[in-house]
Amino acid sequence: xxxxxxLNDFKRSRGDPHLFPGxxxxxxxxxxxLDDRLVHVAPxxxxxxxxxxxxxxxxxxxxxxxxxxxxSVHWFDDGDQRYVPDTAVVETVHELGEHACRxxxxxxxxxxxxxxxxxxxxxxxxxxxxxxxxxxxxxxGRANRIGQLQHDDAVxxxxxxxxDLLATSTDLDVTGQVPERFEELLASDPIEFPRSDADDRYExxxxxxxxxxxxxxxxxxxxxxxxxxxxxxxxxxAALEDVRSGATAHDDRDAVIAAGRRQARxxxxxxxxxxxxxxxxADLRALCLLRAPTGARIAGPEFDPxxxxxxxxxxxxxxxxxxxxxxxxxxxxxxxxxxxxxxxASARFHCETQLPDGTWPHRVWPHNGELAPGWANAxxxxxxxxxxxxxxxxxVAAFLATYLRRIDPSDERVQETLTAALDGMDETLSADGLxxxxxxAWENMTGRFTHTAATxxxxxxxxxxxxxxxxxxxxxxxxxxxxxxxxxxxxxxxxGIYALRLDGDDLDDRLDGSTLALASxxxxxxxxxxxxxxxxxxxxxxxxxxxxxxxxxxxxxxxGLARFEGDPWRVRTQDxxxxxxxxxxxxxxxxxxxxxxxxATDRPERESFETRARELLALVAPGGSLRRPGGYLPxxxxxxxxxxxxxxxxxxxxxxxxxxxxxxxxxxxxxxxxPASDPATGHE
Length: 684
What we know:
By secondary structure, the protein is an alpha+beta fold.
């Protein structure tokens, strides 16, 4: 997002009870792009790239579409949107009086297609309808020092290495547009887009990132296709031919939809029809939208590029990515989702990005694994510091260990990476058996957290089960036992919960959704050592108290779990903490995991936890109150149901798949390490 866009949004949205001025939000609209280009299609039909983290290319910063009918341009406003079933083709329907205009958007690799079809009532057809489009590009992420090359049938907008091209399936008439000037940016009102015609400084139109295109609709049912292509150098002539042929090869609705179906078949696993995960396609599509060709995922589409309200979201966090990878392994194991290529790509990326000390950095760019801006990179800095998120390393280690056990026991590089990860974890484990002082999962405080301890317990137990050398497995088993015993130091008897953190000598006894990770960690531990009855009693109390205490059912259309007690983040004018989809999904997963653990010892509480898991899962399942158009799960929602923050957020989609698969097998529950459900390939 360039400064002009942020300033215009600031002017439009200040004072709004839900909007944070200056963001480039995706809480409405749908995304297309299952490869390395990610394009958002707003309800008004405008398209915008969120592609940089996935491809290293910036593309379209803003756009607008309209139809010229009978001499007047009708700019599209608020259309109805849906996905064409089983694809990532976005269909947007615009009502223009007696006319209906259907817009189809599909992103294939780095090519984006916008196909428009005019459907008119009998006797009302316009003899020469024209699609009007205005595009503001940002090659190399720049809004200035831009040039345009205007060919007869195509346009190139360029800065240095990135060249963005546009072509159409019919004739093309192009004019450049002058960007906003300083005094306009400083004015109190936002600037309308597209602008009025340029003045007599003709050269400015060729030194601008903005181009306006007029495209006649042709045929018995008038239609046309606009294609844009992002490139990072290479042969210009070949790129021009690619964008031209892309437009002409997809010059009708059937061609666009057929291409979308081919893409989905190739990019997305198609589970057997017998799977019990309802509409798993919607979750897999959301996760694929966020996935780079490397296999790494962004947390969510970048909505805060100026770090005005957060530290940004368009990066790969090893917490999110490791957790998503593990949940997908769970879902695949339970339901046969055919995700082997995804698992292998995740394992390869995690091996390639490990630091020399065996840990992982705060966050990286998913398209190349290079270090991205962050604030928790103490392991890369001189001196000791708590600005390190140890749970991220543990989450990746748990995934790699499970990958070795379930997918490829012979992968020597993963074995080496896992051994180094064990060294990195051991280095941050204190003598009392708990991880030292670090940053937490929510990235808003430091201390010695129950959640961090849970991820360590999970990772150590997973490594102990993996096909690794005996001495590595023995060391991991011993450290898992130390964590298990040290968790007693985090118990809060008065509340019957595990504390949020140990801060110095003080227990912070607030309820925290991230501590629900204890359930799955203990299920993993139970595969190598027995979880005793006293610990089961505490887990029952902790999970029940945490879920009940964080549960919110406000006067509105949504309900679910808050993040932690007293969470003040992004509440705006709302009095209470917002509902988060990730904690709601986490609650479902934790109660399901605990139900499995209790069933293994015939504990009577098993049934109530399974029931609670199904209730929580229904909130994030297709048709649930926290779902949004396109099947998206946003990070947060206001009490009136308005979505906020990153949308879609990958983490809850993966948890939903894993939990649905887990509950589908309820009734034939075995311990996590039982050979009947998980053939032993390691040290169990």
